[in-house]
Structure formats: C-alpha cells, structure tokens
Amino acid sequence: xxxxxxxxxxxxxxxxxxxxxxxxxxxxxxxxxxxxxxxxxxxxxxxxxxxxxxxxxxxxxxxxxxxxxxxxxxxxxxxxxxxxxxxxxxxxxxxxxxxxxxxxxxxxxxxxxxxxxxxxxxxxxxxxxxxxxxxxxxxxxxxxxxxxxxxxxxxxxxxxxxxxxxxxxxxxxxxxxxxxxxxxxxxxxxxxxxxxxxxxxxxxxxxxxxxxxxxxxxxxxxxxxxxxxxxxxxxxxxxxxxxxxxxxxxxxxxxxxxxxxxxxxxxxxxxxxxxxxxxxxxxxxxxxxxxxxxxxxxxxxxxxxxxxxxxxxxxxxxxxxxxxxxxxxxxxxxxxxxxxxxxxxxxxxxxxxxxxxxxxxxxxxxxxxxxxxxxxxxxxxxxxxxxxxxxxxxxxxxxxxxxxxxxxxxxxxxxxxxxxxxx
Length: 423
Hints:
It is a single chain. The protein has 423 residues and is an alpha/beta fold. Helix content is 38%, strand content 12%. It has 14 helices and 13 strands. It has helices spanning 20-28, 40-47, 58-63, 98-108, 127-140, 178-189, 202-233, 237-244, 266-276, 282-292, 294-308, 337-346, 360-367, 397-400, and strands at residues 10-14, 32-36, 67-69, 80-83, 116-119, 149-152, 171-173, 196-198, 317-321, 350-354, 382-385, 406-409, 421-422.
C-alpha cells in the first residue's frame, strides 16, 4: 500500500548539497520533511542560516519548516526517502557509487512496508535496480515491488544559475511499477512549476540523465578541438564562432575547461555501462579526451607567449583568477583549474590563486592551496582568467598588466585589447 499524498506525508531527503537542500526546502512547504546529512558541520551551518553552496538564502532557511539533522534516527518513520548524494568517479575514471550504496544501507535499515525510495543521484542505466535495490532488500528484509518500491528522478540542478532553478526545470520521473510512477510524478508535480515528464521505466530515466551531460560534453569538445586547430592557424576562435552563430541553426557552444560533477563525470558513467556490455564508445570517450587536454593547452600557450615576450619562465609569478569549476558558483569539485596550477608549477612558476566565491578551507583541504585575498599585492608575469565570475568582469586588467605581463582569457570575456591570448 503506497503512502497518501497529503500534508502529513513524511519525506526524508538524504544528502543536503546542491541538489538535496533546495529539494528539501521546496517539499517542506507542503509536507513534513527531514533533511539529513552525515556532515555535522554542514547541518550546523544550515542551522545558522548559512548555505555555503549559495543555492539557498539565509531568509529562506530561517523561515522554512524543514527539519535538519545529522542523526539518521530522525529519519525513522518517513514514508518517502529521496537520496541525493554525490556520485563521482575515482582516479581511474570509474564510477564511485560508494556514497550511494552507503545511503541505501542507511535507508534500508529503516524501511517499512509501503515505503518508496527515490534516487536523484546521477548513475549509469540499471544502477538503481541492479546495485541499490539489493542493498535495500538485504538491510530491510523486505521484498522489492511487493513490500517497498523505488523510483528515479534525475537532478537537473545548475549551480550558480539564477534562471534555471529547481521549480522551473521540467522534472523527469519514473517508478518501479505504474502505481509508484504515478505517485512519484504527482509528488514532484506538486512543487515543480515547469511540469514533469514521466518516463516509462527507471532505466529510461537513468539513461536520460546520462546522455544530457554527455551530449554537452561532446559539443564542447568539438569547439575545444576547433580552438586547438584555429590556434595553429593563428585565427581567433571566438571571432569564428561569432560569425558562424549568425546562422539560425548553429549551436553556439564555447570552448573552455570542462570539469565539475556533471559534464566532467557523467560521460564516464555511460561509457562504463557500455563497456560492461562489450561496447567501446568511441565518440563519448573521444570527447572526454579532447576536453581533458585543454588545461595543458592553456599552460603551453601561456608559456609560449611568455617566451615570445622574453619573460623569464623559471621563478616567475602567475595569478590564477578562479578555482571553482564554473562561474558564479563556489563548487570546487573536479575543477580543471587545478590542472593548470599543477602544470605551471612544473615549469617552476609560482602560482597565486584568487577566488572570492570558493571556501578557503575546502580549497586548502582538497587541493593544498591557500587562496590569496589581495590581487594587487604582487607583480605578476602571467595572469589567467580561468573562471568568469561576475565580479571579475569589473576588474581593469589593463591597469594590472605591465609590459612584461601575459594575460590569458580562457572564457573570451575580457576586453580583446587587454589579452595576449584566449580560447
């Protein structure tokens, strides 16, 4: 017997990051919601009205009815569990679903008859029913699709994007049987203004998420490859793209560093599943290959520009503007900027990193980098705009430059007269 969609419905959201927190807050406006995260520091910050992901305002946190907890016992009695934990790749680019399985184990220990477990974390097609459901069955002692039910509704969060938010992005839903699919679709419809799309199966919904970001990755890899080619031709990539974009059906993707926890990760989930079935995906992996070499291209181009200006490489100073994986977002996960920093250091260049949006302790812990707070204290022979945060765009880089300074713009957003090179 499925739960009833009433204000008394008790929902537990496991994982309060970029995906889970906005989702929990939205559901808490209509239902009883417990937001759980095993990071006690995260819960403490949220209790104080501080969301380090910048997804939710202090006012929204303080006025919400959301119950926040780092004690999994507070999830007891929930009828719907929504799992939104990270699913990264390991050092070998293989899917790391350890957090997903751990969350499944936690939920499995408190499952009761009639409960529904919804997964939102990005996975490869089949993961929910082939990897997670067995954990739920083992821990609960219950039978899938007889005693409890599952669903998959892929997250579509765009961190740092004030336009495409949870409520105004169409939500894909699915369920382990028709009744569960209907319930889950109605549940999300109650908070999503843009509407929902009910997929015919969990595996279809999983696959739809996997290809969303793989498609973007491939399209960006195409323009990145164009940037590599046009650099050899000594023509400006942005000018070429601007000209091509005058045609109505041209897809205006831009070259750049492709990191983060979605575009830089999801293609590996899809290729992993394909390879497990005996198919080697050439297009998907070739796109990843091109995008993964862009940091090296930026470094080599900068060094060549320095040599052209007779700037001493060894012992010179470089300023890296931004370390997050995208603009106007504090998320540093899988940032490709760190690859540029590492390669510059291999050339004997001292690198300072400035990013007012990134959390200093996280950067120090994950990358062993101490962020600077004053970009005018030192004279730099190389300045790289790695991330186009809005507040960077108001800086007069022309005044920061000396005759022996190289300014490289990876996002092609700065005054063309200032820059020595750009993607």
